[in-house]
Amino acid sequence: MPQAAPATPQLSLARTWCNGDSLLIRINNITPGIQYRWTLPNNTGFISNGISIGNAISNVAGTYTVVGATPNNCTSIAGSITVAPVNRPQITVQSNTPVCEGSSLQVQVQSDSAYNITWRGPNGLTANGSLLQLTAQANSGGTYVATARNQSGCTRVDSAVVVVLPPAVANIRNTDTLVCLGDSFTVRGSFGGGNLIWQPASIVSGSIATSFTVRPTTSTWLTAIASSGSGCIQRDSFLITVHEKPSVFAGRDTTIFKGFSVPLTLARVSGTAINFIWTPSTGLNDATLLNPLATPQLTTQYILSVNSAFCGAVSDTLTIRVLENIRVPNAFSPNGDGVNDTWVIEGLNTYRSATVEVFNRYGQPVFSAGRGYPQAWNGTFKGKPLAAGTFYYVITIPELNNTLSGWVMILK
Q1: Is the distance from CB of 355 to CB of 368 less than 8 angstroms?
Q2: CATH topology (fold) of 331-410
Q3: What is the CATH number of domain 247-323?
Q4: How far is CA 102 from the centre of its chain?
Q5: How far is 351 from 359, CA to CA, in rounded Å?
């Protein structure tokens, strides 16, 4: 009776064949008692009762054929499988080592395609992605291992050794600072690592410890640059804004006649973020103008005040002396009735250099006064009342470069 032929062998890969690994082909429908005869791509043969070729077979790409045979040499239809190894990912791990502590550490996978990347690193570090980016710490040095896996599951491993260098230290504690021109302030911070320079050198020169005083003349960024022996550099800076202090000149004292005006054209102010005002406002057309028109009715001292939003306040004064018209009465009656008891010369007191002399009809002086006629004459001479009569006066006014003369009567 004819014997049935064995089933055709069904072949498959037991696992993905990654380039460099052993090839493992599995017979999925093994029948006990059947001998399986293999034909390899290089036309060599192999007989196995097992389920696979085994590791002894060289890893050769191509078609593998298997025939099942009974003890009576009744053979099956040949089963076959064509295989080729899957290329592993091509990767290179690169880093920016050596890096300074506190700077950016980058470890990156360069590859021929997009792969699933996993990382292992110092201190139990794990991560995913092609780029590993972190701030370098003192314990960040060591080996960083990247494993790339393609869609077939084949992997490749590469690594890079990272060296972390000791840092330089430039840590300024000052924040951005406003300072008035001519003033100074203290810079504080932590500096170290080897060499320290400052920019601009016009403010600071040489190596400085934890604090020092600066007196800047212009607005600038003050920058500390620290460098270590290993080449690490750290910079820190802050902005210094220098404001001009307020200054003021109200002008020169001046003299006018009553009823006249004078423009205050010499007034000057300067400074950063300033405002100014004249006080008192009496007699000025606008106290908020720098150069107002002044028409005071009396001698007045004006104050020009300047205030800076940053650097305090200053002021200056200007006196406008008002000269009144002089009226010389030609008679008075020093009789004690409270009416015209003294010789009042209106306006003369505004002429501070004026002098007054009075003579009798014989030319003998009976009264004299200086410095603007501070007290009116009461008709006495050496403390005794003069008799009624006519007297003659000479009023000298240096401010006007003029002399007034005439007569005055004492009435009883």
Answers
A1: yes
A2: Immunoglobulin-like (2.60.40)
A3: 2.60.40.10
A4: 22
A5: 22
